Amino acid sequence: MSTVIKGGTIVTADLTYKADVKIEGGKIVEIGPNLSGTETLDATGCYVMPGGIDPHVHLEMPFMGTYSSDDFESGTRAGLAGGTTMVVDFCLPGPEQSLLEALQMWDNKTSRANADYSFHMAITGWNERVFNEMETVVRDKGINTFKHFMAYKGALMVNDDEMFASFQRCAELGALPLVHAENGDVVASMTAKLLAEGNNGPEAHAYSRPPEVEGEATNRAIMLADMAGVPLYVVHTSCEQAHEAIRRARQKGMRVYGEPLIQHLTLDESEYFDKDWDHAARRVMSPPFRSKQHQDSLWAGLQSGSLSVVATDHCAFTTDQKRFGVGNFAKIPNGTGGLEDRLPMLWTHGVNTGRLTMNEFVAVTSTNIAKILNVYPKKGAILVGADADIVVWDPKRSKTISAKSQQSSIDYNVFEGKEVTGLPRYTLTRGEVAIEESTVKTKEGHGQFVKREPFQAVNKALSTWKELVAPRKVERSGIPATGV
Ligand code: URP
Ligand code: ZN
Ligand code: ZN
Ligand code: ZN
C-alpha cells in the first residue's frame, strides 16, 4: 500500500517547489516528479506542507475546580480538522505528587488520541524527589521540557528559588525550561483589591494582569535562565513588554524562544468590554487579550524572527463552566480554544495580508516548533524518512468559523463569525487521511506518544561557555599577614 500526493506545490520552511510525495508505512519514502502509488490524492492548486504542531495545549486539564472540556479525542480531532497533526500537552503533578505518578495519570488520558502527541512536565514544587525524578523523566520517559508557572499563586505557581533550582537541573540534564511569565504575587494582590472595590466582572480579569506584570516576569525568568546557563521558552507571549525582554535577550546572544498565540495575534481587549457577560467570560484567559499596539508588536516579532512559534494554549471550557465566576471574575476558569482555527486564522491574517510568507507560516506553525522541541525532522518536515504528517492546503477554500460546525466539544468559539480563506483539502496523520475537506475520517487510538530526546548541542555549548567563564579564585603570592 502506498499513497501519492500528486500535482501540488511543496512548501517547507525554506523551499517552495513542485513535486509529488509518496508515502509508505506512515513515512515519506520519495519526493519527485511523476510518482505513482496504490492511492492518489489530488493536490492540484494546493500547497503540500508539514502538518501543524501545536506546542501548547491543555486537554482534560484539571484546573480551577473543573476539567477543560476537550479531551485527547476531541482535541486531536479539532487539530486535524484545521491541519494540526501533533499536539504537546502539559503533565501537571499535584502538590507533593511524584512526577512519575502524574505522568502515569496523563498517559491514561491518551488512549483515544487521533493524532500524535507529546508532553511537557510541569514543576509545581521543589524537593529532592522532584530533583531525582527529573532525570528519569528526561532519560527514560522521552520528555525534555519542564514548565514553570510564575502565576496562579496557591495552585501551580513556583517561587524564584524553586525555579532557579529547576533551571539549573534542566541545564545538567539537557532539558529546556518553559515559563508562564506573569508576576503571580502582583496578580493576587491586584485581584483582591479589584474585588474589594466591587470590580467583579470579566473585564477585571484583564485589569488584574496588565502588560507590566508579564514584562517583569519575562525579564526575571530570562535573567534566571542566563545565570543557570540554560535556554528558555516563554509560553503565550502576549505583549510588547515581554517581547522586548525576549528581543533584548536574543540580541545579547541568549537562546530565548517566544510563543505568541493565535488568539493574541487576532483578538483584542475590547472583547472584555462586551455587555454580554458570557461573551466576555468565554474570552478570559491568562495573559488576557491586549490592545492593537501589542498585536502589532507580536506580528513584527514573527516577521523579524524575535518570536519563534505560534500556538493556541487550547484550554476549552463550556459556558456553564465559565459561569462558575459569576460575581467573582477570579473564579472564571482561565482558557480559550483555538486548535481547529490556528492555521486558517494565521494564514488568513498572516499570509493573505502579506505579513508572513508561506515559508514563514510553515516555520512558525511547524518546523521551528519541531526544532525547538527536538523532534525535527521526524516531525515538521517534508523529507524522505519523515513521518507523513502532512496538510494539503487549499488556499482558495473559505469558511465562516462557527461553533455549530466545529470539532471542539464546547458550545461557542472565540473566533465565531470570522471568515477564513485557506483550509485543508486533506490532513494526513502518519500517512492516513484523517480529514478530506469537511469529511472527518479520524481514527480513535491512532495517535502515538512522540518521545523527545535530551538536547545535545545548545546545552553543551552553554555549559562549555559557563565553565570557561566561571568565577575563579585568584592565586596570589606574598599574602600579607592577618591584620591585628
Ligand atoms: O488561561 C490560560 N492560559 N489557561 C491555561 C493554563 C495556562 O496558563 O496556560
Ligand atoms: Zn499559562
Ligand atoms: Zn497553557
Ligand atoms: Zn492508524
Share in helix: 25-40%
In the sheet with the most strands, the strands line up as 3-2-7-17-18-19-20
Small ligands present: N-(aminocarbonyl)-beta-alanine, zinc ion
Shape: globular
Enter the CATH topology name.
Answer: TIM Barrel
**Poorly predicted residue ranges:** none
Q: Kindly state the mean pLDDT as a whole number?
A: 97
Could you tell me the number of beta strands?
Answer: 20
- How far is the first residue's CA from the last residue's CA? 90 Å
Structural class: alpha/beta
CATH architecture: Alpha-Beta Barrel
Radius of gyration: 23 Å
Provide the β-strand percentage band.
Answer: 15-25%
Q: How would you sum up this structure, described in words?
A:
The protein is of the alpha/beta class. It has one domain: Alpha-Beta Barrel (TIM Barrel). Helices cover 33% and strands 20% of the residues. The protein contains 15 helices and 20 strands. A hairpin with a 4-residue loop joins β2 and β3. α3 packs parallel to α4, α4 packs across α7 and α7 packs parallel to α8. It starts with a strand and ends in a 16-residue tail after the last helix. The mean pLDDT is 97. The site of one zinc ion has 3 residues, from loops. Its cofactor is Zn(2+). Belongs to the metallo-dependent hydrolases superfamily. Hydantoinase/dihydropyrimidinase family. Pfam families: Amidohydro_1 (PF01979). InterPro entries: Amidohydro-rel, Hydantoinase/dihydroPyrase, Metal-dep_hydrolase_composite, Metal_Hydrolase, Metallo-dep_Hydrolases_sf.
